[in-house]
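Checklist before submission:
- one chain only
- standard amino acids only
- sequence pasted in full

Submission:
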Amino acid sequence: MIRILKYLRGYLRIRVRGFSPERFMNLCSNRGILLWDIVREDDGYCMYISLKGFWELRPIVKKTGTRVAVLERYGLPFFLPGLMKRKVFVLGMALAVIFWLWSSGYVWSINLYGNYRITDDMFMSFLEQNGVTVGMNRKNLNIGELEKRIRRNFPLVTWVSAKLDGTKLIIDLKENDVPPVEDDEKETAGTDLVADYSGVVVSMIVRSGVPKVSIGDTVEAGALLVEGKIPICNDDATVREYRYVDADADIVLEYGISHTESLPLDYVKKVYTGREKQSRYLRFGSSRLSLPRSKPYLVYDSLIRESTPIVFKKLSVPVAMGICTYREYQNVEYKYTDEEAEAELTKKLNDFLASLEEKGVQIIEKNVTISMYDDRWVLEGGFMVRGPVKKRIPTEKVVIGESEEDDRQ
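Returned file contents:
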């Protein structure tokens, strides 16, 4: 604290020489003038003295016959006059302080923690609908009301806490870990499982519904495999009513499919010329300020490198500076060689087969040929596969009274 006061009031480092420097220091002590860090140097003494005490030395110097030389100046009274000469620096400092004060009144970042089942996009969309956005004024944010709306709109949230930390809005959530209890007796209109393709049933495990085919049967596309209509019979084996369920079964069909991929004989490839140009820009939020510039080249790619100054990063202010590099290239036509065409078509085929495997389809047999025509390369493939049945259709409803009446007629 004493060092701060000394800096604010200003102090000097002086050298005292002459007939009696010791008497000089004694008289300063008698008059309450503080001297510190006194060091003997050659034929004199070096010491520190306050700026106020320095102006009181004249009668002491005259009385003792000593000479006082100022070696160094310290403190705010000496710093400010030199600073005021640097008008651009002072203006920049003033603008920086004004910007800091202005930006501290807004929310520049929203951080969400504890959400697992509620996605960030869903929650941010909810905040935007309720007027809570990046760049909003802190005065317009009602923390208590926001917490109530979160609990009201998200039943999964059992606890929520929102707080402002500088320019950051931090929202902590706790979701309900207990899964909702589903009603086993939930009524359904009923659905049937039907064949996606024409093929042979190789395996079948039915959990609910009435099976209409057996393992080894050959079925057509759209054929009924498991019906979601379960008959409930009387004692005399007549049907009293039907109960409708969602047919549930693991059924695997073996069937054949075909697939075709094509490739033009020639293609266009980017060849970079090595010429590059750069332009700098300043981004504030979603707005971007850059020097007006026409297109640097006829065809080009853009490479952007962006960074946020540490000051704005600490304040969570979305300000960034970047460099955009434009790289010129030319479109050059090439023709596929046999090896290149085969590799490209094989890659496309592998992507197709990978998509089948993601759906649970097993490849049993395949027959692939690659041919070149006048204007393209063509890959044709025939595959024997085994895949699960997933296609559903609504169950046809039957009214018992009407069916009996039709039988009588």
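Reviewer check: Residues 271-331 form one domain.
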